[in-house]
Amino acid sequence: MNTLLSLGHGYSASALAARLLPLGWQVIGTIRDPSRADALRSLGVEPLLWPADLAPALLRATHILASAAPDALGDPFLQVAGDAVRAAHPAWVGYLSTTAVYGDHQGSWVDETTPVNPGSPRAHQRVLAERQWLATGLPVHIFRLAGIYGPGRGPFEKVRDGTARRIIKPGQVFSRIHVADIAETLIGSIARPNPGAIYNLCDDDPAPPEDVLSYAAHLLGLPDPPAVPYYQAEMTPMARSFYAESKRVRNDRIKTELGVRLTFPDYRAGLAAMVKG
């Protein structure tokens, strides 16, 4: 019996679980909010309220996916239960990181051989957590995710309610990845494990963020959201940190090594599918 222990069972992990459960897998997902427990059970996921003793779940786990956000000390699960994690014997471990670890490349291309150069505290914490997981001695695989979108997470709500703004910063591009393609890539890695490997998860079309909003408006039959110059835009510190970096991320490795064929190779395909439901 294959059993996935999902440490920090969020959006991406839920997409993977939805693919694995029909194949006969068991999935254990850690959560902090007890109100989520019944919803997880209804989906076939065994909830584990965190903090908790991970040892029993780790004994059952044939596979581990870690996706919780780190802090200044690195991965939260390794901080609390590092000894138990390192004593486990999974066949595969995945750690979900971010392409922010590469820092700013002023729109140039990066791949998995590009040295990390984190430019924000959040990215520094991800680099630390990556290294902590690789140091466990377990069969760890690092997945650096671009901006995640998919059902329930996308631009449509803000476009519909009129709060969307096209922030214009010349030369700014972001890479993205649909959550379904995250799940597909993780399944590909589970089928073809290569401990120590690092993979970029993104689609084929890095694009300016204002183009994505315009296309979302087009799909809804609405006018383009208003354009606002970057230096005049009101943004949260988190949003401004995203705009401080621009790069195009290559995804060749997931295709050549894992045989991934993206269901949504660009934002147009992904958003069109979301509109259709």
Characterization of the model:
- The protein has one domain: Rossmann fold (3-Layer(aba) Sandwich).
- The protein is built from 11 helices and 13 strands.
- Helix 1 packs across helix 7 and helix 8 packs parallel to helix 11.
- The protein has helices at residues 11-20, 37-43, 55-60, 76-86, 121-134, 156-161, 179-191, 209-220, 237-243, 252-258, 267-276; strands at 3-7, 26-31, 45-49, 63-66, 92-98, 109-110, 140-145, 147-149, 166-168, 176-178, 198-201, 227-229, 248-249.
- The chain is globular.
- Helix content is 37%, strand content 19%.
- It is an alpha/beta fold.
- Strands 3-2-1-4-5-7-11 form a 7-stranded parallel beta sheet, sandwiched between helices. The protein has a two-stranded parallel sheet with strand order 6-13.
Please describe the topology of this protein.
Blueprint: E1 3-7, H1 11-20, E2 26-31, H2 37-43, E3 45-49, H3 55-60, E4 63-66, H4 76-86, E5 92-98, E6 109-110, H5 121-134, E7 140-145, E8 147-149, H6 156-161, E9 166-168, E10 176-178, H7 179-191, E11 198-201, H8 209-220, E12 227-229, H9 237-243, E13 248-249, H10 252-258, H11 267-276
Parallel strand pairs: 1-2, 1-4, 2-3, 4-5, 5-7, 6-13, 7-11, 8-10, 9-12
